[in-house]
Amino acid sequence: MRTVDLITKKRDGGELTEAEIRYLIQGYTDGSIPDYQMSALAMAIFFRGMTPEERASLTMAMVDSGETIDLGGIAGVKVDKHSTGGVGDTTTLVLAPLVASVGVPVAKMSGRGLGHTGGTIDKLESIPGFHVEIGSDEFIELVNRNGLAVIGQSDRLTPADKKLYGLRDVTGTVNSIPLIASSIMSKKIASGADAIVLDVKTGDGAFMKEMSEAEELAACMVDIGSRVGRKTVAVLSDMSQPLGNAIGNALEVKEAIDTLRGRGPADLTELCLTLGSHMAVLAGVATDREEARVMLERAIESGEALEKFKAFLTAQGGDASVVDEPERLPAAKRLIEVPARESGYVAAIAAERMGLAAMLLGAGRATKESRIDLAVGIVLRKKIGDPVQAGEPLATVHANEIGAEEAIARIYEAITVRPEPVRPPALVVGEVH
Ligand code: URA
Ligand code: CA
């Protein structure tokens, strides 16, 4: 096989075979195919797209480019959840203990990553003592014992995806639906998932700003899953405003605790119940979504979900007393109210700009090396559709040394207040099975 012939074939709209895709991915991973050829191929895929067979082959070739996690030592169906990113998305922190408390085994690999706030691991590390540096045997053992454990992402999984994603980032080829779909699915499969629940965000704060693109991405990932034997379900959810009220690491931990207690924001609670119901059905602990939802609601009411969270924190070195005494979490020095300048109804809370505001306070990482401030962030006091009087707080800024003035300016840019009533957006806007 000659790489140039395969690039030409794709450029001219041909279909690559599984063997050809494996040759390309193996060669790129071992360095025998250079970046310039792979960038030409990525660009050809960007313009020509990929057939369903090609997407499935690409996904599995990337899975096989590195190590895979064997969760065979854990009893039950391992269902993983993936969210395509958003602003202030606290769902993993809530969902993991919630579904574990009804018997879904949760063996979660999580990362730090770049973004407006830290990744799930950063958020959890705002709990004194909590750590994810556990060996794989201990990880499996903890899931079997407690139903739930979180381990740091191994950098030996899907090396082809890592290399290709970096290349796409600098060659204008990130925004290709087949490349995004196979990238996401390869990572979930390599981390040992038997079944996958996807939360595909759409709207201002999302990767896929248009509903039609989000639907196409969701359908693409569900199709890959079914072709490679991993039952996959996708929920399309609104990111035209931040999810929940808190944007920031320790602030989101507190929000997750409130939600597990049954006192969380309505939208975050609803999304967790929706995603959790799909997880429970795929894991086989409930026969249908209605039954699953009742089980999850009961686990919140009875306190079992919260107890599961405490047991999980303790097992990984964390001080579980923060659950009952959230004032022990890292707290910012200054709390600044951001008052409404006029009366009316909240019409928009541009999620991306709110994320940027949190970033200016130090809640996120701009580069891999930056340190994040776990205490800082923003708590929304109003959501879209809420009435507001001039002078009433729209948000509270939790700030330390940096960024308060700039963050407040961004918050005013993000939030629109209109005189006429506004209907709040629907949260779950679609599903793909
Ligand atoms: N997220 C991923 O993991 N991969 C992509 O290609 C895009 C977003
Ligand atoms: Ca939130």
The best one-word shape is: globular
Q: What is Rg?
A: 22 Å
Query: What is the β-strand count?
Result: 13
Largest sheet: 4 strands, mixed
Distance between the termini: 37 Å
Proportion of residues in helical segments: 40-55%
Instruction: Tell me the structural class.
Output: alpha/beta
> Beta-strand level of the residues, as a percent range?
15-25%
Mean pLDDT: 95
Unique ligands: uracil, calcium ion
Low-confidence stretches: none
Determine the number of helices (DSSP H or I, runs of at least 4 residues): 16
Please trace the helix and strand order, writing H or E for each element: HHHHEHEHHEHHEHEEHHHHEEHEEEHEE
Arrangement of strands in the largest sheet: 1-4-5-13
Overview of this protein structure:
The chain is of the alpha/beta class and 433 residues long. Helices cover 45% and strands 15% of the residues. It has a 4-stranded mixed β-sheet with strand order 1-4-5-13, with helices on both faces. It starts with a helix and ends with a strand. The relative contact order is 0.14. The model has no long low-confidence stretch (mean pLDDT 95). It binds uracil and calcium ion. The site of calcium ion has 7 residues, from helix 11. Its cofactor is K(+). One of its GO terms (molecular function) is pyrimidine-nucleoside phosphorylase activity.
